[in-house]
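testing teh design pipeline on a random one, pls ignore if ur not involved
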């Protein structure tokens, strides 16, 4: 068995080509489903709940009915008895870590006061309602509890009063109790059995059962991603996410088994996932390639991981650490691991990464689940200008302006001068009129 992963010297022609391709890896949302998604959204706007039930019957649960759309109080009560104590212990740990981290992101309103009585400032307010989309996860057999926590906890900290969760039901019309328990644990009061593009349309436009929201977040397939793109502007979305990716920068102190394990942790996500390594010598590159061949045999998702490595995996050998860090900044990866002797010494040199993991004992999976920082991160090089999901995703800011007669008299001439320069006479007159 061969992983087929590419190995190249960074300074070679092939290496330079790989870097250029990685820099330009941004992909627009999949256009192959654009028209289908537009039709679905229009149908949901026109038929509301009826459309949701029809699509759910067709794609998820053949015997689904309208009265199953919202998870009932009885289902919520039963869910807690259906999960074990060890899950509840882990849920509490993960939620407390994520909550503690995001509490630090709270923003405060502020004001400034001029001597002439003019007041300016900014008021920070949460949106009224947020919608969290959670994928089905193999028909509900692999519930994405971490997505519930990572999206819902920042919304709760922001002060969002109405939090809504949507997730597709399994063939039996039910959803995994772990998702229900996780949602209830962080204060989500509305849970609906609804998926894909029709679920996103319901969150954006509302139906008879589901009231619309202001922000939609959460991962999904190409139909979910395209639907989020199409409703963006009517509502805020978290981001248009691409395939998951990790970039590891490793020196001679790094353990090749650790590197391979972390690369495979990304590769098992999806055939499109990117597992990338920049190391400092050929010997380490070869040892990692061997470890990948050995460890991939042990994975349940072996075929997915092998295809990911063959199609998108890469190992680059840099001349020195400085060159490696420069390439890391150019790639701007979603997850960046620094498996080097002194990662803290190099932290200040990192300008572009969604999340940075320092040292051999900080695998990317810590950030996925229990470390605390959010795992909803910019992909496809967008870490150059965007950030992880956080409390700010669920707030908006309003400017505040209050003038006194003295303050307006002082500024009126300047207001008029700029307004007339821009050809807006009424603007100038609105200020001049108040000064006699």
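output:
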């Amino acid at each position: 068995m061969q992983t087929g992963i590419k190995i190249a010297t960074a300074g070679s022609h092939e290496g330079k080509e790989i870097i250029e391709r990685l820099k330009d890896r941004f992909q627009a949302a999949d256009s192959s489903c654009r028209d289908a998604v537009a039709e679905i959204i229009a149908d949901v706007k026109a038929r509301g709940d009826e459309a949701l039930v029809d699509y759910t019957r067709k794609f998820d649960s053949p015997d689904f009915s309208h009265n199953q759309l919202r998870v009932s109080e009885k289902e919520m009560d039963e869910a807690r008895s259906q999960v074990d104590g060890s899950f509840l212990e882990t849920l509490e740990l993960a939620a407390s870590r994520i909550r503690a981290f995001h509490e630090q992101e709270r923003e405060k309103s502020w004001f400034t006061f001029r001597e002439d009585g003019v007041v300016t400032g900014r008021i920070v307010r949460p949106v009224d309602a947020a919608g969290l989309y959670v994928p089905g996860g193999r028909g509900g057999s692999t519930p994405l509890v971490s997505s519930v926590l990572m999206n819902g906890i920042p919304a709760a900290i922001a002060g969002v009063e109405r939090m809504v969760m949507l997730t597709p039901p399994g063939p039996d019309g039910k959803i995994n109790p772990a998702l229900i328990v996780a949602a209830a644990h962080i204060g989500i009061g509305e849970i609906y059995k609804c998926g894909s593009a029709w679920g996103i349309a319901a969150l954006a436009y509302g139906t008879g059962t589901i009231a619309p929201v202001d922000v939609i977040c959460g991962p999904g397939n190409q139909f979910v991603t395209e639907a989020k793109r199409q409703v963006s502007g009517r509502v805020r979305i978290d981001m248009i996410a691409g395939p998951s990716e990790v970039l590891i920068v490793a020196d001679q102190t790094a353990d090749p088994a650790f590197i391979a394990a972390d690369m495979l942790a990304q590769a098992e996500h999806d055939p499109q996932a990117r597992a990338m390594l920049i190391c400092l010598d050929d010997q380490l590159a070869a040892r990692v390639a061997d470890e990948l061949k050995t460890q991939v045999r042990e994975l349940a998702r072996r075929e997915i991981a092998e295809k990911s490595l063959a199609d998108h995996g890469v190992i680059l050998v840099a001349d020195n650490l400085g060159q490696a860090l420069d390439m890391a900044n150019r790639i701007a990866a979603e997850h960046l691991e620094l498996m080097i002797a002194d990662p803290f010494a190099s932290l200040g040199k990192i300008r572009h990464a969604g999340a940075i993991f320092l040292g051999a004992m900080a695998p990317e999976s810590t950030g996925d689940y229990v470390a605390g920082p959010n795992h909803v991160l910019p992909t496809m090089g967008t870490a150059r200008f965007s950030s992880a999901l956080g409390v700010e995703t669920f707030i908006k800011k309003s400017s505040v302006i209050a003038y006194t007669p003295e303050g307006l008299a002082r500024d009126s001439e300047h207001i008029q001068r700029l307004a007339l320069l821009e050809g807006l006479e009424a603007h100038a007159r609105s200020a001049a009129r108040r000064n006699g």
